Amino acid sequence: MDNKFSRRKFISLCFSILGFFLFKDALSFLTSKTGDEQEGMISFGRPEDYPAPGVYKGNGAWLVRDARGFFALNSRCSHLGCSVVEWDEGRGIFICPCHNSKYGLDGSVLEGPAAAPLKPVQVTVDGKGNIVVDLKQQVPKDSRLAV
Ligand code: FES
């Protein structure tokens, strides 16, 4: 009786482990990136989609168009790293919802507790003509992509 119970328990354990790996693989497949996506790269689409100066939200970055062209800011707060600093259109500033740090349009700190600006990151146009922001490439503050 003891032996039969142990065998049943062993088989149940094997199916549980098998189920775990199948679930993990299925989840990995469902969340995998397409061939066009790369880690830290954010596509904003065609430059002509942004005909006027403005601030546009992407997944991990803000794309800004001003009179000189496009630049992008990493939307991660420089204070403790809250992931989404929000744009306040009415006041024309970025605000972190975590501890209320405020940043200017260029990412400079207007009010703490943040002590460092939002990181300016690289904006390019890829081979398909889409604006792409690379979160891994920090650039000088005044960099612009002229279009
Ligand atoms: S994490 Fe943004 S103000 Fe603290």
What is the beta-strand fraction?
Answer: 25-35%
Major beta sheet, strand line-up: 1-10-9-4-3-2
Which class of the largest domain in CATH terms?
Mainly Beta
Report mean pLDDT, rounded to a whole number. 83
Overall body shape: extended
Number of helices: 1
Walk me through this protein's architecture.
- With 147 residues, the protein is an alpha+beta fold.
- It folds into 2 domains: 1-32; 41-138, 3-layer Sandwich (Rieske Iron-sulfur Protein).
- It contains 1 helix and 10 strands; from the N terminus they run H-E-E-E-E-E-E-E-E-E-E.
- It has one helix spanning 2-31; strands spanning 41-45, 54-57, 61-66, 69-74, 86-88, 93-95, 102-103, 109-111, 120-125, 131-138.
- Strand 2 (54-57) and strand 3 (61-66) form a beta hairpin.
- The chain is extended.
- Residues 77, 79-80, 82, 96, 98-99, 101, 113-114 line the site of FE2/S2 (inorganic) cluster.
Task: Describe what is shown at a glance.
The protein has 147 residues and is an alpha+beta fold. The protein is 20% helix and 31% strand. The longest helix is centred in the first third of the chain and has 30 residues.
Features of this protein?
about 150 residues, alpha+beta, Rieske Iron-sulfur Protein, 2 domains, 6-stranded antiparallel sheet, 1 helix, about 20% helix, about 30% strand, binds FE2/S2 (inorganic) cluster
